[in-house]
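Slide 14.
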Amino acid sequence: MTSLKKIIVTGGAGFIGSAVCRHLVKDLGVSAINVDKLTYAGNLESVKEIEESPLYHFECVDIIDRPALIDVFNRHQPDGVMHLAAESHVDRSITGAGEFIKTNILGTFELLEATRSYWSSLTTAAQVAFRFLQVSTDEVYGSLGEDGLFMETTPYDPSSPYSASKASADHLANAWFETYKMPVVISNCSNNYGPYHFPEKLIPVVILNAIDGQDLPIYGDGSNVRDWLFVEDHARALYTILSKGRLGQKYNVGGRNERTNLDVVRTICDILDEINPKNKGSYHDQITYVTDRPGHDARYAIDATKLEDELGWNAEENFNSGIKQTVQWYIENEWWWGPLRKIANERRGLL
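Slide 15: predicted structure.
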């Protein structure tokens, strides 16, 4: 295990990135340099509780801008990078793939080169201690049938512009390890959920639509299966992989919580019926079905055995405990999500 005390977190104002920044500063006492260009999904309110900490620093930088990245490296002198900056919404990638190619592929290339320039300038001891974590998704593996799990050895088979762009970024990161011997590790996670999730993704959309009395849209018949991972469990896993993972290796991060999309929506309705009941009827009455989106993978499921056995990480939340916390958080924190609902596009299954 290497001791990492100052880490650049790209995309640190996003959903997962902000959870990572909070974990580093609050739980670990590690300095977090948040590098984020603040797209629609980046929100500094998500790191408000650590913004006054001397361990937290924000740099408004686009990862496509290599000179600006090099300047950040030179000023902060980090001993690790956690690369989370990405365009991440599959629906948006279907209707506008260009930004995904630019940020997820070209941006990763520029970050890798900026990192390599900085890493090459370090002393031998500092080079040995340095780590770069490429944070990716299980969507690069494609779709599973009714049985089986994604392993670290599962071939890549992406089916959306988003997943194809993330697969490309993973290949670049691995190539920088193989070619330049840069100290790279890669993680692939299942679907995250939890507080501070931008309200365009399934779970926050369902919670907020339910509260507002709007339809709860489900793609197709709702039978698509995802493995759900509480975002704070993921943040812990990422630092574990960065600090303890073997170089050149991949680690899958999953919560062992497979649910169909319909089950997820029904669970949220059950929780709301219990803790925030309507004057009349049930939240289940608001469920509707919309045309399925193109290339919608049937099932994702992660085998996290390697991470659990080799590095000692385990998820602390199961889906039932995590989703109840999440619903309660959205009920109590309209100050955060209220302004964002105005810019979150409606989820659609159509091109």
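Speaker note: The domain at 6-193+229-257+300-317 is CATH 3.40.50.720 (Rossmann fold).
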